[in-house]
Amino acid sequence: MKKEHKDAIFAxxxxxxxxxxxxxxxVQVFPDMIKRSVPGYSNMIGMTGVIAKRYWQPxxxxxxxxxxxxxxxxxxxxxISDPSLEIVALDNSQAMIExxxxxxxxxxxxxxxxxxxxxxxxxxxxxxxxxxxxVVILNFTFQFLPLETRLPLxxxxxxxxxxxxxxxxxxKVRFDEHEQQDTLFDLHLDFKRANGYSELEISQKRAALxxxxxxxxxxxxxQRFAEAGFAESCVWFQYLNFASMLAIKAR
Length: 251
What we know:
By secondary structure, the protein is an alpha/beta fold. The chain has helices at 24-37, 41-55, 71-79, 94-107, 147-160, 178-194, 199-209, 218-228, and strands at residues 61-65, 86-91, 117-122, 133-139, 161-172, 232-239, 242-248.
C-alpha cells in the first residue's frame, strides 16, 4: 500500500498554473488534500454509509460515481454487512482507480474476511449504464462535470433507480445572495488557512480549479432534481459552502 503524503502540490511558485487534474501527483496526497480543503468531509462520507443502509434494497446495486479512492464505497461496506451487497464504483482517473484497487484489496472485506462484490472500473460516468440501483452516490463529482451533461446524467440515474431509491449528491455550493456568498467564501479560506495552507497554495489551487469546478446554488440543484423526475429532494448537511443533498424517487 502506498504511503499517503501531505499535500504540497501548490506550495512553491509555479510559472504557469495548469488546470487541475486527478493525476498521480494528486492521488498521492488526495486524502490529506480533501480533509484539509472540504469542510465536513468526514461527516458527509460517514453518513453516506448510514443513508445507504436505510435505502439499499436487497437484490439491487449501489453505484459510487466518481469514487476516487473509494471512501464512500468503504463507508457503505462498514454499514451494510449483507454479503450479497453489490457495488459499482467508477472513476475516469486511471491513477485513482489503480490506487483504489489497493485500498479495496485491504479494506473492502465482509465480516468473514471475504472480498466484497465491488465492480471497480475506469470509466466516464456519462457513458456508463446505471441499472437496478437503489442507491447512487455522487460525492464531490457532479461539480466537475460540464453543465450541459448534468441533467442528462440525473435522468439516467432516475431511470436506473428502483422505486424508492435515492441519490446522494455532495458538492461545493454557491449562494445567490452576494453577502452570504462572500461571507462563506471568506470563511472557507479561513478554514484552509487553519489547516495549514499558505496564501500561495490557496491562490494557485484556486487558479487551477477556475472553470474546472463549477458550483451551483441549492435552488439550481433542486430544480434539476425535479426536472429529472425525482419526487422529493432536501439538503441534509451543510458546512460553510459545502453541502450534501438527497433526491428520492417515488415508490
